[in-house]
């Protein structure tokens, strides 16, 4: 038994794939929220996407975090409670732990089995660190387990995950973070920058086809978990940069006219009609600073890599 890790299932209510699929396919512009990508296979596919040369985000962010860890710790101080929504395999936090020396770590994720195994591995590697892993849906709440010690908090949100929210939803999430970290609280956040469309389009259309598999896995998940006749073979991956919106849009395109049956419901797809599965908003420095300032934070410092590909911001509750 590993002594320094506890698990907390907050049973996120918004977790029903069935409800999300019925609601999303009933709309005229069909869509399903990206949180449903992450069953065990989806989490594993995402880890493999992070190793693809075109998907520059994790490589650049990791390099930045490794070289900035001491500087960040000088600005935050040590001994904070460190909270990471969407922690996944907890790879990036490892780059900071020795410098930040948190009093406790609270990794949160919707993919609970995956979170449990990554939290256990982390607990073995860092025996000095109390870990309280929680299954939550961060689009709804950020519940902190009762065992977590008092003291100043730092929320870590890498991977440009904020980009999966629309800018107005991102504002709502930032206010939730603001209330969760409270007075004296800080947030360290990785944000993808606006850049050439060629680089962005390549990042979400890797040559190995892993982003396509990740996108299509949503349909396989529906096939396995729901009473439906959906056939993933008649859909294709589509990802492109929408310059006007400033985001990558990811869709599943129906390659044929088809009717999908689900528990007595029938959903018609025209040939070429899409199911919208994810947005990934990119932020200029001014856009991001305005967003955090409007939602209760002040910038402490920010860093951009030499090629302008990715930015890391440290902000504090105003
Ligand atoms: C894009 S990955 C990023 C993983 C990691 N933070 C990183 O930067 O490499 C998103 C992670 O957030 C989790 N996730 C996605 N939506 C979520 C939600 N609504 N609530 C909690 N976790 C979520 C996924 O399971 C996955 O582990």
UniProtKB/TrEMBL annotation:
This is Histidine-specific methyltransferase EgtD. Coiled coil: none annotated. One of its GO terms (biological process) is methylation. It comes from the Bacteria. The keyword Metal-binding does not apply. One of its GO terms (molecular function) is L-histidine N(alpha)-methyltransferase activity. InterPro entries: EgtD (IPR035094), EgtD_Methyltrsf_superfamily (IPR051128), MeTrfase_dom (IPR019257), MeTrfase_EgtD-like (IPR017804), SAM-dependent_MTases_sf (IPR029063). Its EC number is 2.1.1.44. Keywords: Methyltransferase, Transferase.
């Amino acid at each position: 038994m590993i002594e320094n890790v506890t698990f907390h299932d907050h049973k996120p209510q918004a977790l029903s794939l069935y409800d999300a699929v019925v609601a999303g396919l009933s709309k005229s512009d069909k869509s399903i929220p990206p949180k449903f990508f992450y069953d065990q296979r989806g989490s594993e596919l995402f880890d493999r996407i992070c190793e693809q040369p075109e998907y520059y985000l994790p490589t650049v962010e990791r390099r930045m975090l490794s070289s900035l860890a001491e500087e960040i710790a000088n600005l935050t101080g040590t001994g904070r409670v460190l909270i990471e929504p969407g922690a996944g395999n907890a790879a990036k936090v490892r780059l900071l732990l020795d410098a930040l020396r948190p009093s406790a770590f609270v990794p949160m994720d919707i993919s609970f089995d995956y979170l449990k195994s990554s939290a256990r591995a982390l607990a073995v590697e860092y025996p000095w660190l109390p870990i309280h892993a929680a299954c939550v849906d961060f689009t709804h709440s950020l519940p902190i387990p009762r065992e977590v010690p008092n003291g100043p908090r730092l929320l870590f949100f890498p991977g440009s995950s904020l980009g999966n929210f629309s800018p107005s939803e991102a504002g709502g999430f930032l206010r939730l973070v603001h209330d969760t970290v409270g007075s004296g609280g800080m947030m360290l956040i990785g944000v993808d920058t606006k850049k050439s469309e060629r680089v962005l389009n390549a990042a979400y259309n890797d040559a190995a086809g892993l982003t396509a598999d990740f996108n299509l896995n949503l349909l396989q998940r529906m096939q396995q978990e729901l009473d439906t006749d959906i056939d993933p073979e008649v859909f294709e991956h589509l990802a492109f940069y929408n310059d006007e919106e400033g985001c990558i849009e990811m869709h599943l395109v129906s390659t044929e006219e088809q009717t999908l049956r689900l528990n007595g419901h029938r959903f018609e797809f025209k040939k070429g009609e899409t199911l919208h599965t994810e947005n990934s908003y990119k932020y200029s420095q001014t856009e991001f600073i305005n967003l955090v300032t409007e939602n209760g934070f002040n910038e402490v410092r920010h860093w951009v890599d030499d090629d302008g590909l990715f930015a890391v911001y440290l902000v504090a509750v105003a």
